[in-house]
Amino acid sequence: MDLLAEILVASLIVLGGGFALIGSWALARLPSLMTRLHGPTKATTLGVGSCLVASMIYFPSQGGTWSAHELLITLFLFITAPVSANMIAKAHLHRQRHRMETDPEDEILDGMPDQRGRAPWATFGNEDASRP
Questions:
Q1: pLDDT of residue 111
Q2: Is 70 within a domain?
Q3: What is the residue range of 56's domain?
Q4: Which of 11, 13, 111, 115 has the highest CB neighbour count under 10 A?
């Protein structure tokens, strides 16, 4: 393996490990659910993604064949992590709105901000039509 590939693979692995460590720490230490979402969806996703990209570079440079598995895993991870975080955040906002759960760290206790003539929040739009 040439020196450039070794440096690139090593730096991507160290970068990925750093992002994964920061994301895991954020998940464990941040105070509320809404702030905890950022750890796994942003930092950890970048960490795992950079380790997978390092794997995509390492194996062909060692004389092996190129495989699309790592690329597909990375794309799947980058697509599904924000979508799942959005669904968790919407569920949390609905729980806050119906007072099933209150967390002063979220600062959503008084309801959503005023929209001042704009369309309603996508999460809370057209609620009157869904009530019997």
A1: 56
A2: yes
A3: 3-106
A4: 13
Number of domains the chain is built from: 1
Q: Using CA of residue 122, residue 126, residue 131, residue 132, what is the dihedral sign? A: negative
Say how far apart CA 6 and CA 68 lie, in whole Å. 20
CB 64 within 8 A of CB 43: no
In a domain, 64, yes or no: yes
Contact 123, 115 (CB under 8 A): no
Per-residue pLDDT reduced to its tens digit, 14-30: 999 999 999 889 888 88
Q: Tokens at residue 64, please? A: 């092996």
Distance of CA 5 to the CA centre of its chain: 28
| pLDDT at residue 130, as a whole number | 47
Provide the angle, in degrees to the nearest 10, between the axes of the packed helices 44-61 and 69-97: 170
DSSP H stretches of helix in the chain: 3-29, 33-36, 38, 44-61, 69-97
pLDDT in tens, 81-104: 888 888 888 888 777 766 655 555
Polymer length in residues for the chain? 132
